[in-house]
Structure formats: structure tokens, C-alpha cells
Design a protein that fits this description.
- Helix content is 38%, strand content 32%.
- The protein is an alpha+beta fold.
- The protein has two domains: 94 residues, Arc Repressor Mutant, subunit A (Orthogonal Bundle); 90 residues, no CATH class.
- A hairpin with a 2-residue loop joins strand 6 and strand 7.
- Helix 1 runs antiparallel to helix 2, helix 2 crosses helix 4 and helix 5 packs across helix 6.
- The longest helix has 17 residues.
Amino acid sequence: MNARVDYHMEKYHFTETGEPQRLTQQWAEVMDECLQLKAGSEERLRIALLNVDYVTSFELPFRLQLIRAPQLIDRLRKELSLSRKPVTIGDNRYGCVYSLKTDLSAIPDEFRYRFSNRIRRITSAGVTTASYQEIAKQVKAPRERLRLALKSGLQVTALDGLFWFGMQRIAADIATLRKSGMKIATDRIDVFDSLTGTTRKVPLYKLAE
């Protein structure tokens, strides 16, 4: 197994459709601060909650490279006085908004997002991006992408699932695939991404031998 995976962001653009300029500027400042501090996952979330007017549960993993956003939110709700409002994401997803504001009436009830990226996935074997991109082109449903990737012999990190398969909670999809009969092994691997400038361990999944 590769000892580490590096993700080099040549392009990374995640934004709400019609996003207000104020929010765009706030997110830019948050990401600059996180990069300068090389902030860990919980600290990145704390910086965002303290400096952005509101955040949605859907955007947090993509904006901040979080793989356990719900658990981190629960932890920080004990520290910060967060208000919460249910919202719709796109046509059929449900999520919620978090904000330090007490009046959330001016916050939209529905959100749509655009995500485009150009990321180089690098391991000791070299640039390994193409295999994951090809899987994403073959099927649309995130869980089917994951199933196909594992059956193809790929090792899939939580960030692979986020970047190329559109999966925010890969552990839940792994559990579903296991219930369907797939034998999947779990490991942990060091990953680096140039967006946050941090190295940390994340789950890695592969077919069990």
C-alpha cells in the first residue's frame, strides 16, 4: 500500500449559484487564514463558523476538506452558540444551515452549488488521477462509482470519494456496500492537500483479499 497520497490543487472552485460577493470574500479570507495557520480539521471549521455569515452542511466538506463534518459540528456546538435551520440542497437533498446569528429568516431556504476542479493525485507510483476520473465518467451515482472503483482494484480514500465521486459521508456508503455482500477492508493513510497545506490520516478502503 502507498504510504501517502498527495493532492495538488491546480484548480479548485466550489461556490453557491448566485453566491453574494460578501460570502465569497468571507470564504476567501477563511481559506487564507486556514492555509497560513495550517489549521487542522476542527480549527478550520471553527474559523469558518466564526467568520462566515452562514454555512450549509453540504458545503463544509468541499470547502474545508472535512471528512467527519457532522461529528465536528456536534463538538463545536458545545462551544459556540450556533443557530440551525433546515434547507434544501438542489432538487432533492436535505441539509441545514449553521450560523452564529439568531435570526435566520433572511437566509435562503434552498441552495445550489457548482464544483469544478483539476487535482493531481500523486503517490509513490506517480500521478494516479486518471483511474478515479475514469470511474466518475462511467457512472453517475456516487455509491455505484465507489462500488466500481473497489471492484476495479482501486484503493479509495475519503478524499477520493469527495473529489471525484461526490461522496460526503463515504463511511455510510461503505457500510451499505458491506451489507450488500462486498468484503471491504479499512485502513488509514497519510494524505496531504495543497488547499489546506496539511497532512493528516484519513480512512482508506479496498476490497478485502
